[in-house]
Amino acid sequence: MTDTIEDTPADTGPAPAPPVMVDEALAESLIERARVEGLSLTGPGGMLAGLTKMVLEKALAAEMTAHLGYEPGDPAGRNGGNSRNGTRTKTVVTEIGPVAVDVPRDRDGSFTPQLVAKRQRRLGGVEELVVSLVAKGLTTGEVQAHLAEVYGTEVSRQTISTITDSVIAGMEEWRNRPLDPVYAVVFIDAIVVKIRDGQVANRPVYVAIGVTADGERDVLGLWAGTGGEGAKHWQQVLTELKNRGVTDVLILVCDGLTGLPDAVAQVWPVTIVQTCIVHLLRNSFRYASKKDWPALAKDLKPVYTAPTEAAALDRFTDFAATWEKKYPAIIRLWENAWAEFVPFLRFDAEIRTVICTTNAIESLNARFRRSVKARGHFPNEQAALKHLYLTLTSLDPTGRGRAKWMIRWKAPLNAFDLAFDGRLSAGRK
């Protein structure tokens, strides 16, 4: 029997405003005029700059009319107590370069323009462009050179830093926002960045991604550590997540850090801690000669693909009998990690594929690493967090920390609910 799902219109709120349409004949006429007069479309003195100047000045003149209550030359404005008082020229930086705009003035100085506010030297598009370039890994010097070369716009490094600093309030709000009470899976990992604190040193930045009860992946936060990655620091991070509303996590997936299961148990006593299989394999190969990697991988595969924990133990016994004499360190590695390795073997295939690796968070960390590579080091902790936050929001046009690559969760959520006695549904808001 096939279920039929009837599509119903979704309540999406008021319809968006229609886009502003430009008459094609007018556009062609302007382009032809630029060609005949030898004008460029972009750059200083280009036609787009002239059009931008015209549009801004017309809009400012309309603002002045609304402020005074009468049109230019209208007798209604005589003896009204206030009147137009010429203009002052102001240069603003736009996405197409600097544009000199004549801003109208009034006699008593009460006119406050909205489109180009007092002391405003940049239109919004420039600020968005600067933030986007910084998020992609460009330094302030590189952004400055890019704006000068492409747009003919001179913007100081201090101005660029000021623009990006404007996101700090939003970042702090995002880092302290309330979270869902229950997550099906939480992935945790850390990346290393260079921060100058007296002297340049490697510092960990902790990252956590949660799978919500609605099946979406959500970046839960970014935290700067003080030294090497350790279970103590992770316990502080997890405690903060609990304080922000996370009362239960079904499965926490990590890279096998020593002491982390005990740290997790202090915060969420019934949470299952799962070691990432990929990390376990990588660590195994570090103890072996490269020429033995293919054979080791082949012999380990039956262990982590076993249908049950008992079968995995049998396969590991066979593996140990083959390799213990040559690589006893690999055997000890797996024995020490066994308690955190086997939990995923209790579940069906759809859950196993979700929780056996930290690939979900490794993908995000790879973007972070590409972005910080060109920076060398950051002057302080806040600068590093700000840069990573900009990288995150550049993947997400909503600015809520949900990146484009975070697609709908593919594993059926009812599989988690069945495996965990409905704890996931109990946490739905």
Automatic annotation (TrEMBL):
The similarity annotation says: Belongs to the transposase mutator family.
> InterPro entries in the record, alphabetically?
Transposase_mutator
Keywords for this protein: DNA recombination, DNA-binding, Transposable element, Transposition
Among its keywords, does the record have DNA-binding? yes
Query: What positions belong to coiled-coil segments?
Result: none
MF terms from GO for this chain are: DNA binding; transposase activity
State the species of origin.
Candidatus Protofrankia datiscae
Keyword Cell cycle in the entry? The reply is no
Q: Where is this region: Disordered?
A: 69-88
**Name recorded for this polypeptide:** Mutator family transposase
GO biological-process terms attached to the record: DNA transposition
Which Pfam families does the UniProt record give? Answer: Transposase_mut
Tell me the function of this protein: Required for the transposition of the insertion element.
